[in-house]
Amino acid sequence: MLRTFSKGGIHPAENKLTSTKEIKRLETPKMVYVPISQHIGIPSEIVVVKKEKVAIGQVIARSAGFVSANIHSPVAGIVTKIDKIFDCRGYQIQCIVIKTDAKDPSNFEDIVYPLKKKITLPPQEILKYITDSGIVGLGGATFPTHVKLNVNEDKKLDHIIINGVECEPYLTADHRLMLERADEILIGIKILLHALHIGKAIIGIENNKKNAITLFKKLTKNEEGISVVALAVKYPQGGEKQLVKAILNREVPKNGLPIDVGVIVHNVGTIYAIYQAVQHNKPLIERVVTVTGKKLKNPSNFWVKIGTPVSDLLEAVGGVPEDTRKILNGGPMMGKAIKKLNTPITKGTSGIILLSDDESHRGESTSCIRCGQCVYVCPMGLEPHLLMNLTEKHLWEKTCAEDIMTCIECGSCSYVCPSHRPLLDYIRFGKKLTNECKTK
C-alpha cells in the first residue's frame, strides 16, 4: 500500500497540463524588478545605487540578519532605480530595477554546466556557499536554507527528506526538474548528507509521477543510504509535517519543526540550487516556473530569471485568453491573485496559473450548516468554521487558544465547504491580526 499522512486531506482535480512539457529557457527580459524581500525573515539590505553597473550573479542586496538571504543580480546591466512595486499579494514592496545590457553577451548565453560528481568541499565550506548563494526553500515557503541547516548540537538529526511531491494542482515545475536534472539532484542530496554528517535520505514522490519514481529508483539502486518512497496522491502532502508523517510515521509537535523529530525537509528545487551553488558557484538567480491554464494556447515550463515581469511569461505562452478572470502566483489551492502584470517572478514563484471565469467563480456564501466537512479534511486537526467565526468577531485571545497560528493555509476547508464560506480568507486575516496582538 502506498504511504500517506493520516489526518485530513483531499484530492482535487490534478490538471497537470504541462507534465510532458520540457523546460524551456525564457528569453532574457529587457528589465528586471528584483524585490529585496524574497524570503521569510528580515528584508535584505540594498548594497547598490542608482546608475551603478552590475554583473550577473553580483550581490545587490545583502542578508540583513540570521533569518535573511543574499539577493543577486540575474542580469548584467544598469540599476535604473530603487523603487516600489506590487507583489503577488497586492502589497507594495521595495525592489531594485535593472535594465539589461543588450550588448553584454553574458545575458544571452545558455550555459550548460558539466555534471560535477566529486564533492571536494568540507562541510563548513558547503554551508558557506549555500549561505552566500542566497538559497531559500523553493517549494513556496522561502525559508532561508542556511538557517534550516544550522542544526543545534542538542538536536539529533538522522534523516533528510527530499520533497518531490508537488501536490498542488496544475504545477509541474518540480516534476520536470526531477526528470531533466535527476543526476544533479542526486549529487545535491549527497552534498547535504556530507555537510550534515548523516547517512540517510529519502526522496518522497507522489504516485502520479511514475516516471520520476522509476528514474530515481534506478539512480539510487546502488546508493547506500538514499532511497525513494512512492506516496499516495493526496493534498496537502507537500506540507513538511504531512510529509514526515507519511514517510517516517513521525508526528511533528504542534508548534514544532521536523528537526524536533530528527528530520530536515528540502524541496527538490532547493536541492538542485544547492548543487549549482556548491559545485559551480552559481547563486540563486533563476528557477523553474510553470505557466499554465486550460485556455492557454501553449502552457509551458520555463527557466526564468528572478525579477522577470509576469507579463513576459504570459507573452511567451500566447497571451492572456479573453475569458481569463484570475491570474494566480502559485497553485490554485494556496496561490494568491496577481494585481498587476508587471509583478516580478521571485524565488518563491513556482507557477503562474490563468483561470477562466467559470473556474474562478465562487458560489454565494451562505450560513454554515454544521456539516463538519472542514474539520474532517483539515490536516492540522483544527476547526476552520470556528476560527472563521472567532475572526469575524475579533476574538483574538480565543483564536490563539484554538491554535489558529498552526494553520498551514492549504485551503482544503474552503475547497469542501458546501456553503461556500471563505474560510481560508478569514483564517489568513485572523492569523495576521492574532500575531500582531501577540507581539504587542
Features of the shown structure:
14 helices, 20% strand, 28% helix, 6-stranded mixed beta sheet, alpha/beta, 17 strands, Rossmann fold
Number of domains: 3
Helix content: 25-40%
pLDDT < 50 stretches: none
> What assembly state would you assign to the polypeptide chains in this entry?
single chain
Name the shape in a single word: globular
Provide the residue-averaged pLDDT: 94
Structural class: alpha/beta
| Proportion of strand residues | 15-25%
Strands ordered across the widest β-sheet: 1-14-13-17-15-16
What count of helical segments does DSSP give? 14
From the alpha carbons, calculate the radius of gyration and give it in angstroms: 21 Å
In the CATH hierarchy, what is the architecture of the largest domain at level 2? Roll
Main sheet record: 6 strands, mixed
What is the first-to-last residue Cα distance? Answer: 49 Å
CATH third-tier fold name of the largest domain: Ubiquitin-like (UB roll)
The number of distinct β-strands equals 17
CATH class of the largest domain: Alpha Beta
Q: Could you describe the 3D structure shown?
A:
With 440 residues, the protein is an alpha/beta fold. It folds into three domains: 163 residues, Ubiquitin-like (UB roll); 158 residues, Rossmann fold, CATH 3.40.50.11540; 67 residues, no CATH class. The chain is built from 14 helices and 17 strands. Helix 11 packs across helix 14. 47% of the residues are buried.
Summarize the structure.
This protein has helices at 123-132, 145-148, 173-180, 182-196, 210-219, 240-248, 268-280, 310-316, 357-360, 373-377, 384-392, 396-401, 412-416, 423-439, and strands spanning 23-25, 31-35, 45-46, 53-54, 59-62, 71-72, 77-86, 92-100, 159-164, 201-206, 226-231, 263-267, 286-292, 300-305, 324-329, 336-337, 351-356.
